[in-house]
Amino acid sequence: LSFNYHMYGVDVGSLAVEIAKHNGGKEEVWKHGNDHGDRWFNQSIDVNSSVPFRVRFVATRGGAFKGDIAIDEVRFGVCSNFVGPCLFEDGMCGWTSDGTGPAWQPEMGVDHTRGNEYGNYMVTYLTGNETTESAALTSPVVPADQHHCQLLFSYTVPKEITLEVYANFSTGRTRIGVLYNTAQEYTGLNIGNTSDPFTIQFVAVREGDLPASGRLYAKIDDVDFRECLPLPEYSIDYCKTFTADQLKVLFVKEAPVLRGQDWQWKFQDFFYPGKVYTELGEDERGPGWLDIKWDHGLTGHYRMGHSGKCDLELLRTVDSCVELANLDGVLGSCSPNAECMSSPSNPAEYNCTCKPDYMGDGYSCVPSAADGEQAPVLPKARCDFDDDWCGWGPEPMRPGAWLRHTGPTPSGGTG
C-alpha cells in the first residue's frame, strides 16, 4: 500500500492506517502525528495478509480546530521489500553509519520535513585533525524492482565538503551524483538499471584544513525512492513535425506533458509528468515558450519551438492520440497501458485502446468498445480522487468525516 498524506496546522493530531480483516481482526500498521508543514509526503507500507481485508485511514484531531489532514494517490502494488521513504523523524529506518570514519547520527533542529526546530535529520561533523576526512551513510538493501529507479533527498553541504552519492551493486559501485555547497536543497538522482539489489551510500568528503570556526557538517533528510516512470519514446520530433500553430493546438492549457528529447533542465521535473499552465506564446526571450506546472507542485518555463527546440512532449492520452492522428496524418500515441488504434468502423479515426490489466497499475483508462457496446472500465488499483472516490468512503457512523476536496495535490497539482 502506498499513499500521499498532508498534515498541516498546530492542532493536527494523528493519522493512522489500520488493516481490518474480514474475520474480525484489526491491526494498526502505521501512525504519524503532529504538524508536518504545508507539504505532501509519500508513504509505503507492506500489508501482508492471507485473508481479505479493508484499509482504514483514521485521522484524529488534536486539542483544537487549527489543523487539517489529507490523503491522495492511494494505490496497491505487488508485494516487495520496499525501501523508503525515510524522514528520520522516528529513527534511522535501517540506514547505518560506516564505522571507519566520522559517524552519521540523528539530530533535532530545523529540517526539510517540518521546517521548524522540532524536526529531525541525519548529520555528520567533519572536524578531525586529518587533512582528508570522509563519512559514509548506507541504506538497507534495496530490492531489485521497478519501484526504486530515482533517488530523492534533501541535503546541506558547505563549500568545504563534497557529497558523493553511490549505488552499490554486487557487480560494482556506481557514482550517481556529486553535490556541492548547498543549504537544504531537495534534489533527485537517476539510479539507472535496478534489475539487481543494491544499496545507496552518501559519502561526505572534506579535503584541506578546517575553517577558523572548526565546525563543518553535512546533513541528509527526507530520503525517498520513485518508481520507474514510463520514459518518453521521442517517437515524434515535435519541432520538426509541427508548425507553431499546430503546437498551439496540441499544447493547450491543462494538456499533460513529460520531458522531451531537447530537455536540458536537469531535475526540474523530478521525472514527474506535468500540465500546461500557460498557453504557448511569447515573452522577453521571444516566441515559443510556455509554463508547466509539474505534479510535484513547482512551475517552470520551457521551450516549445523557441530556437527550434522542444523541451516537452505530450503524455499520451486519448485526446492527444486523436489530435496527433488528425494533424497531417501523424499517428498519435497513448500512455503505456493503451494503444493508439484506428476504429474498425472508421479507419480514419484513432482512439486509445487499453491493454488489459497493465502491470496492475489501474490507470484511469476506458477501453474502446465495439459499436453499440458499453466500454468496460478497468478496476482501479490506484486512486488519485480526481474523478471520484473509487469506492473509498467515510464509515457509515461518521458521515462527512472525510471530504473530497479541490486543491493542489501530487496527482495533478490542480485537483
Describe the structure.
Helix content is 5%, strand content 41%. The protein has three helices and 22 strands. It has helices spanning 238-241, 244-250, 318-326; strands at residues 2-8, 12-21, 26-33, 41-44, 53-61, 68-75, 96-97, 104-109, 119-125, 132-138, 150-169, 172-190, 198-207, 217-226, 256-259, 274-283, 286-294, 299-303, 312-314, 338-342, 350-354, 382-383. The strands form five sheets. Strands 7, 8, 9, 10, 11, 12, 13 and 14 form an eight-stranded antiparallel sheet that branches. Strands 18-17-16-15-19 form a five-stranded antiparallel sheet. The model is unreliable at 356-380 (pLDDT under 50).
List keywords for this structure.
415 residues, mainly beta, 22 strands, globular
How large is the share of residues in beta strands? 35-45%
What is the overall shape?
globular
Instruction: Provide a count of the helices.
Output: 3
Structural class: mainly beta
